[in-house]
Write a structure and sequence with these properties.
Elements (H helix, E strand, L loop, with lengths): L1 H70 L1 H4 L14 H5 L4 H12 L2 E6 L2 E6 L2 H10 L1 H4 L21 H11 L5 H6 L1 H20 L6 H17 L13 H13 L2 H8 L1 H10 L4 H22 L8 H10 L10 H32 L1 H13 L5 H4 L1
Antiparallel strand pairs: 1-2
């Protein structure tokens, strides 16, 4: 019995030892497997990092080589001009003082009647030779009709006359040109007169209450009211309410139109692609959506009531669209909206600034102001022919 008990104890001890060794083996095996897995994961991560770094380096080198080649194009053709910066071209020089016109004049004096400069990587040629200009704009106009590509390819700007190219540009321009004939503009004078009456009322009330006001802000409202009604078929009240959502949106658009992001988009085309994607979420994009939605609503309303005709630019464009059964010849809805939109951008700041400066000069020269007042009083009426 004692012998049997000892044997059992030995066997039990052996089993315990074997179990312990088995556990240790499994533990070491799991550790080795975990270590191997971690090493494999690290190798995969390192491989990905190397691949991404290599791809990025190749892309940067490719961009640098292409940029260098583009910036040498004027030298290849023997065209003189200022030395461009590798990243910004000559943009920083044109933005510095004095004004761009003074800088361009200085370059003309230095490099001659024909020279080139760069905005980012985009080449521009300045021509100050009359015979060459005649050849460009008359004899060889079919070669030079296209404008440079827009910095941001966004809707609706890519459907405007500024962005259309080749045959389509020629077709749309031929359709839009009659819209601005003297006869068509004459039909809209009643709209302009009504908006000017609002301006007179606002100024009269300010004068009666001896209240100071910002004349530039008022003429901005006048300009927007006229363009919105004539071109966009929008009824706005920008003069009476300077906080009108429309006038605020347009002011914000021009306030943020010239910022660092736009400059970067010009210098680096891939940034322009990103900005075009997120443009709807920016201030300019929100203003654009407001106008596009309004014009689309006006188009639907007028098509649902074809017998009702309005004397404005939108109606004239719609008539071009509906008078032709060939889609390639008439204006598409997208082109109607886009060009109504560009009329606003082209006419707002330029007209408002010219009016504000005119009022400034009249205030600075009371004698001229009085003479103008007398001439207006002597006029029999304020019709289109009288104004001409």
């Amino acid at each position: 019995m004692p012998f049997k008990a000892d044997a059992l104890m030995v066997l039990s001890s052996l089993d315990a030892t074997e179990t312990r060794h088995t556990r240790e083996f499994h533990t070491h095996l799991m550790y080795d497997l975990t270590l191997s897995s971690n090493l494999d994961g690290m190798e995969v991560c390192l491989t990905l990092v190397v691949l991404l770094t290599t791809c990025f380096t190749i892309m940067v080198l490719n961009w640098a080589v292409n940029r260098h080649r583009r910036l040498k194009i004027f030298k290849q053709y023997g065209i003189p001009g200022p030395e461009p910066h590798f990243v910004s071209g000559n943009m920083s020089q044109l933005k510095s003082k004095p004004e761009p016109n003074t800088i361009i004049t200085a370059w003309l004096n230095k490099y001659g009647k024909v020279f080139g400069y760069f905005i980012g990587e985009i080449p521009y040629i300045v021509v100050n030779d009359l015979e060459m200009l005649k050849q460009i704009f008359i004899k060889d106009f079919h070669v030079f009709s296209n404008r440079p590509n827009m910095a941001l390819d966004v809707v609706p700007l890519n459907k405007t006359l500024l962005a259309l190219r080749d045959k389509r540009w020629k077709e749309v321009r031929a359709l839009l040109t009659p819209t601005f004939s003297s006869g068509k503009i004459k039909l809209m004078t009643c709209i302009v007169a009504k908006k000017v009456d609002v301006t007179v009322d606002v100024v009269t009330k300010k004068a009666e209450s001896n209240e100071m006001f910002d004349m530039y802000e008022l003429v901005q409202g006048l300009t927007l009211d006229v363009i919105a009604d004539c071109a966009l078929a929008m009824k706005t009240h920008c003069q009476v309410n300077p906080k009108d959502i429309f006038v605020v949106a347009v002011r914000d658009f021009f306030r943020y139109a010239h910022n660092r992001a736009v400059e970067y988009a010009i210098m680096f085309p891939f940034i322009a692609t990103v900005m075009a994607f997120i443009s709807n979420y920016m201030t300019a994009g929100q203003m654009t959506n407001l106008i596009v939605d309004s014009v689309n609503s006006a188009i639907k309303a007028r098509r649902s009531n074809p017998d009702v005709k309005s004397m404005d630019i939108l109606q004239l464009m719609l008539d071009h669209r509906e008078s032709d059964d060939h889609e390639t010849s008439g204006l598409s809805d997208e082109e109607i909206v886009a060009n109504a939109y560009i009329f606003l951008l082209a006419g707002y700041e330029t007209t408002a600034t010219a009016l504000a400066f005119t009022f400034y000069l009249l205030i600075k020269h009371p004698d001229v102001q009085e003479r103008l007042y007398q001439e207006i009083e002597e006029a029999e009426d304020a019709s289109y022919n009288t104004v001409q």
